[in-house]
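User: Let's play a game. I give you a shape written as tokens, and you guess the letters that built it. Ready? Here's round one.
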């Protein structure tokens, strides 16, 4: 393979380098403004067909070399490097090239299906990068990442295959700060001068375009999908937690099924004005229930430290130390937007608290800091293949609740729809108007009485608050990405320092994204779980499972004390139980999920001669149950994982899944009989 640079359509069997996409989220030091900037002829040819592209802020280099000896014979390695020439805040840096493809290429899509590329497709940051095409009617070609995975866009038109790989994007690592009095996105990574990122791709011959190559599965032990829950403790009570864990008379509790979750708890008591505070670990009954959940296999994580109020740095450090020594969590969950030591309130940047340092020294590796993807759980459970909008699904849910007389639930859906659809000042209006109207509606529901004078007073208050919100100074909500980019990248886990996951080191703390799961009765259903399995997706829920607010469709029947679980939740928990027991569904804690995804990004899957794959794992710890997907025609008994048989295998609809362990710092050869002539 050889490299050609330019803007034209190109010809021949070479790799045509396209003009990359560079977008900046902050000011550029030499031009004084953000956005996209280009400066004259930017492609330059170096020795040995090496090219560089520069716009004055970033320089991209591309070069192709013969692959090392342990790679397939005749294969080549394409390396793409981006280096900053000055401090810049990168919103999007994507490298694009195209090759000739006489027939439609085949690729592995977001749902791990091997099939023909039609038009344009996006592969998210946790999907395999593997595509095959026919450049000249002879030998087919295959492209795959050498190590890890990467977000990409593939397009086939006019017998040309164009591939754009994302080296960096703000949508790959969304982050928020509330400390400035507004929701400020800090997702755009600030590159220092001289900072570099590199992607490496393997070009090799293939057995045919339609023949599926071996690729890595997403989850351990041949699981097709993943389901994780984080449950926040803002509405906990001892009675409801007991019913949730042990079940009612129908034996529908969480415990004893082999299910896992990450359960947030408060460890310090605090005085809450105007209502009874929720229980903390200082409550002996609550502590006993939480201990039972931990013994059952779940992770117990701090939801900050207290329900309200900031503590001093010495109290914070000692409380985290004691919590960690007792419960050994890997996950920290932020709480509230007034607690100074939380990540979203600047705790990581405050040397008095040194949130990240304290968490690191106490064994925390994962952190949730207020990022739900902008798609409601009523539309999908799948973080990896979410639609660009959930307005239709939310509207249908709102109408359904309204027809059943559940007006408050319908209004909450309406608020969520407006909140997701509006930004800036109008978004602030929604945040003050809808809660005020909902508060009046809750009072009417309790008293079953409409007072005209009180209604008029409420409307006047709403008008005043709306005017204040419209005229309020302060920063607007700025997002250095589009909603479409968020959906296409599908980022779930990413390093705290704001780089793509494939750049993470073993020591870095990871942030993770979630899907809001407030209306649990609506979104957690057997049908939704079946769709998640069919999509081979991943769900990470941001839940309040013990919530009893009248405008929430929760897991408890209304009017029952201490609480009877709904039929819908009972059916769902039975379906979840069956799916996890069958091992089709992986059910990790948030800490285990983050660790797995970090390990996956470091492993190289290198195809050798027919019927062989080399697995290179550079990490300092073993990886258990790493999954390979092979053609269904492969005899399972023929698979050799190193010097032994594979640890297990399972037929999927279109793959043979086999799995085994990878020792630390290891090179493992997997071989099988290939019956294809």
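Assistant: Ready! My guess for every position:
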């Amino acid at each position: 393979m050889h490299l050609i640079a330019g803007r034209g359509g190109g010809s021949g069997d070479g790799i045509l380098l396209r003009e990359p996409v560079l977008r900046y989220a902050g000011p550029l030091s030499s031009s004084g403004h953000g956005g996209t900037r280009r400066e004259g002829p930017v492609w330059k040819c170096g020795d040995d067909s090496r090219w560089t592209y520069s716009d004055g802020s970033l320089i991209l280099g591309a070069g192709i070399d013969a692959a090392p000896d342990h790679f397939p014979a005749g294969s080549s390695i394409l390396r793409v490097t981006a280096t900053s020439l000055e401090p810049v805040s990168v919103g999007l840096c994507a490298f694009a090239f195209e090759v000739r493809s006489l027939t439609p290429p085949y690729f592995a899509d977001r749902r791990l299906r091997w099939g023909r590329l039609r038009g344009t497709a996006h592969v998210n940051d946790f999907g395999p990068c593997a595509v095959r095409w026919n450049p000249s009617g002879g030998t087919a070609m295959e492209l795959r990442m050498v190590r890890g995975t990467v977000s990409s866009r593939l397009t086939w038109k006019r017998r040309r295959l164009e591939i754009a790989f994302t080296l960096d994007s703000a949508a790959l690592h969304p982050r928020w700060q509330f400390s400035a009095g507004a929701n400020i996105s800090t997702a755009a990574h600030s590159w220092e001068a001289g900072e570099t990122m590199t992607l490496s791709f393997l070009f090799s011959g293939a057995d045919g375009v339609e023949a599926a190559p071996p690729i890595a599965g997403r989850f351990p032990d041949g699981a097709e999908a993943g389901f994780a829950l984080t449950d926040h403790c803002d509405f906990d009570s001892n009675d409801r937690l007991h019913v949730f864990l042990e079940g009612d008379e129908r034996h529908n509790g969480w415990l004893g099924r082999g299910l896992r979750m990450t359960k947030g708890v408060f460890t310090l008591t605090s005085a809450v004005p105007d209502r009874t505070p929720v229980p903390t670990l200082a409550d002996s009954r609550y502590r006993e229930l939480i201990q039972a959940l931990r013994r059952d296999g779940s992770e117990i994580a701090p939801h900050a430290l207290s329900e309200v109020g900031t503590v001093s740095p010495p109290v914070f450090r000692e409380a985290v130390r004691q919590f960690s020594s007792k419960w050994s969590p890997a996950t920290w969950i932020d709480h509230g937007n007034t607690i100074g030591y939380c990540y979203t309130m600047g705790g990581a940047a405050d040397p008095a608290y040194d949130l990240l340092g304290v968490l690191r020294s106490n064994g925390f590796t994962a952190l949730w800091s207020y990022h739900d993807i902008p798609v409601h759980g009523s539309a999908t459970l799948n973080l990896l293949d979410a639609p660009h909008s959930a307005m239709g699904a939310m509207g249908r849910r709102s109408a359904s609740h309204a027809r059943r007389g559940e007006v408050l639930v319908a209004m909450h859906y309406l608020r969520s729809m407006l909140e997701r659809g509006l930004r800036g000042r109008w978004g602030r209006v929604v945040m003050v108007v809808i809660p005020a109207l909902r508060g009046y509606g809750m009072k009417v529901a309790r008293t079953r009485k409409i007072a005209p004078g009180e209604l008029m007073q409420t409307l006047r208050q709403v008008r005043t608050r709306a005017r204040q919100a419209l005229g309020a100074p302060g920063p607007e909500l700025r997002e250095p990405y589009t909603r479409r980019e968020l959906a296409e990248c599908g980022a779930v886990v990413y390093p705290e320092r704001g780089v793509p996951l494939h750049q993470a080191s073993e020591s870095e703390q990871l942030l993770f994204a979630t899907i809001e799961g407030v209306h649990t009765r609506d979104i957690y259903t057997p049908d939704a779980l079946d769709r998640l399995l069919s999509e081979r997706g991943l769900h990470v829920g941001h839940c309040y499972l013990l919530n009893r607010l009248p405008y929430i469709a929760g897991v408890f029947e209304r009017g029952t004390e201490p609480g009877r679980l709904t039929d819908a939740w009972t059916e769902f928990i039975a379906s979840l139980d069956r799916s996890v027991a069958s091992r089709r569904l992986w059910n990790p804690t948030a800490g285990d999920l983050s660790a797995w995804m970090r390990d996956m990004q470091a492993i190289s899957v290198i195809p050798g001669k027919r019927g062989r794959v080399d697995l290179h794992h550079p990490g300092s710890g073993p990886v258990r149950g790493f999954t390979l997907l092979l053609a269904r025609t492969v005899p399972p008994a023929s698979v050799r994982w190193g010097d032994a048989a594979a640890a297990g295998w399972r037929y999927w609809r279109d793959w043979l899944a086999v799995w085994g362990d990878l020792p630390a710092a290891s090179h493992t050869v997997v071989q099988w009989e290939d019956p294809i002539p």
